[in-house]
From TrEMBL:
It comes from the Bacteria. It comes from Roseisalinus antarcticus. Residues 114-125 have a biased composition (Pro residues). Keywords: Signal. Residues 109-133 are annotated as: Disordered. The keyword Signal applies. Residues 1-28 form the signal peptide. This is AAA+ family ATPase.
Length: 133
C-alpha cells in the first residue's frame, strides 16, 4: 500500500494523522481539571509540528482515499494510546530509549540513576459520569 511513496512522506503523513486529533488550546479552567504537564507538553509539541510541517502536509491532500483512511484509522487508535503513555511517564529523561523484544513487545526501561517512580493519581470520573460494572 505504501510502496510508491517517498520514504520521507510516510513519517509526515503519520504525524499529520496524529495531529488531526489534537484538541483546541487548553484554557486555565481545563488545566485545573486535571491536565498534567506531560499532556500539555505533548499537545504543544504536536501543535508546533503541525505549524512547521503545514506546507509539506498540504502535499498529502493528494493521497489516495484508501491510504488517507488507513492513516486516519492509525491516528484514532494510536493517538489515545500515545497520550496514555505520556500520562504514565513522569519525566522522559528518566527513561532509556524504547526497546523492542523478540516477541514484538516494546518496553521503556527506567534509568538506574533516576529517582524512585511515583505513579500518577488515578483519574476520578467526572460528576454525572456512570461507571459500568
Amino acid at each position: 500500500m505504501f510502496q510508491g511513496m517517498k520514504p520521507a512522506v510516510i513519517p509526515l503523513a503519520l504525524i499529520a494523522a496524529l495531529a488531526v486529533n489534537v484538541p483546541a488550546p487548553v484554557t486555565a479552567q481545563e488545566e485545573d481539571d486535571g491536565f498534567s504537564l506531560m499532556e500539555e507538553g505533548g499537545r504543544l509539541i504536536l501543535r508546533g509540528l503541525m505549524e512547521e510541517l503545514g506546507p509539506a502536509l498540504e502535499d498529502l491532500e493528494d493521497l489516495p482515499d484508501e491510504m488517507r483512511t488507513a492513516i486516519e484509522a492509525l491516528a484514532s487508535e494510536a493517538g489515545p494510546a500515545i497520550m496514555e503513555v505520556m500520562r504514565m511517564i513522569d519525566e522522559i529523561r528518566y527513561y532509556e530509549a524504547p526497546e523492542i523484544l523478540d516477541n514484538g513487545d516494546i518496553i521503556l526501561r527506567r534509568k538506574p540513576d533516576a529517582p524512585p517512580y511515583e505513579a500518577p493519581a488515578p483519574e476520578e470520573p467526572a460528576p454525572g459520569d456512570s461507571v459500568d460494572l
